[in-house]
Amino acid sequence: MTTGRQNLARRSGSDVKTVYDVQEIRADFPILHQTVRGKPLIYLDNAATSQKPKAVLEAVNHFYTHDNSNVHRGVHVLSERATRAFEQARLRARQFINAPEAREIIFVRGSTEGVNLVAQTYGRQNVGPGDEILISTLEHHSNIVPWQMLCEEKQARLRVIPINDEGEILLDEYEKLLSEKTKLVAMIHVSNSLGTINPVRRVVELAHLRGVPVLLDGAQAAPHLKIDVQELGCDFYTISGHKMFGPTGIGVLYGRTELLDAMPPYQGGGEMIRSVSFEKTTYNQLPHKFEAGTPNISGAVGLGAAMNYISSIGYEAIAAHEHDLLEYATAQLTSIPKVRLVGTARQKASVISFTIEGVHAHDVGTILDQDGIAVRAGHHCTQPLMERLGLDATARASFAFYNTREEVDALVEGVHRVIEVFD
Ligand code: 7TS
């Protein structure tokens, strides 16, 4: 299969294309070429889930058409092929986030399961009464609730790093909160609601000075930023395949070998065992110890293809294009008197949350939908953040590398129409 990117790369004689041709990229995404409600679809809900390029669709289709079988158990050809495809996806993921070893890549359903796995294994083993877990005000519910459940069970305390009005964490306050009671810091890399890119290297550095491990939720980082877990120095990192142009139901939990080895298993079942008798079970080695049951094999294959696709464009080109969209949209929306941008951090990914004076966010979303524009409206699974900001909801436009300036123009026109309707 040839993608738009490969054509361009070939033409420019390099692996990564030199001219960013967004139309050529869009040609790789069949779903984008449709009308909804009689208007061309403008998909600006990428933070909820991203669309899939043909390369991913075809990889999944190819797997089911030619190689489908269960992994790690059959002696027959199809099982060998499926196992090879699954394990190759693991190798690809290792390389993609620059993990030192492939056994540090645990396939999970997504970021949510990654966090729950750490809470239920590392957390239950290492957190006790009076201990503290540190999170930030910006967290998605999936990086709040698993820790609350753990704290409740263990009579531990959840502490929260405050933010400023722009949506940036306060590093001084963070430092003050770190103490000998802190057993783990769990934080988003990029905020889904505001787009804030957290200073995670510094966050890790400060935690490690006190011997505290750090989990980073990278669900919103992977679509926009090159992730290098060794450079970040983090102990755990989670990603969701569907937010980075891969399938739903697949993600990665990275963990340092030393920590993963010492952790008890998460779920019991097939695959995660070495031997089972009614008296005693011994557990498999990494990564299988944490992958009970038949995994999402086709999902892993699709995720590997998504990683290849992202690499074929290159994060530098993605960042430049998305930065342009972010600046362009920010300037235009800011100039509309009734619009207020929510989240104006200095370091931001291409996510814009906003409110319109006198209009509920859900109405903004519904009216934009009439124009074929998909945004998300609500609390974005960050209710505590919304409360801190004194809001119950925002409208959110989140851009991917296939979005265009023309789509931003359409959004801005749509916002003007919303204002007219409520005037
Ligand atoms: N972490 C962050 C920062 C997220 O934005 C999300 C999903 C998750 C974790 C959960 O990911 P999952 O793949 O396990 O579901 N965020 C959103 C959103 O912003 N709109 O819909 C889902």
Q: What does this protein look like?
A:
The chain has 423 residues and is α/β, with parallel strands linked by helices. The protein folds into two domains: 9-52 and 314-422, Alpha-Beta Complex (Aspartate Aminotransferase, domain 1); 57-311, 3-Layer(aba) Sandwich (Aspartate Aminotransferase, domain 2). The protein has 15 helices and 17 strands. The strands form five sheets. The protein has a seven-stranded mixed sheet with strand order 4-10-9-8-7-5-6, with helices on both faces. α12 packs parallel to α15 (405-422). Residues 6-17 have low confidence and may be disordered. Ligand 7TS binds at residues 47-48, 110-112, 140, 142, 188, 192, 217, 219-220, 240, 376, 380-381.
The poorly predicted ranges are 6-17
CATH topology label of the largest domain? Aspartate Aminotransferase, domain 2
End-to-end separation = 51 Å
Report on the biggest sheet: 7 strands, mixed
Describe this protein with a few key phrases.
single chain, Aspartate Aminotransferase, domain 1, Aspartate Aminotransferase, domain 2, seven-stranded mixed sheet, four-stranded antiparallel sheet, globular, binds ligand 7TS
Question: Short description, anyone?
Answer:
The chain has 423 residues and is of the alpha/beta class.
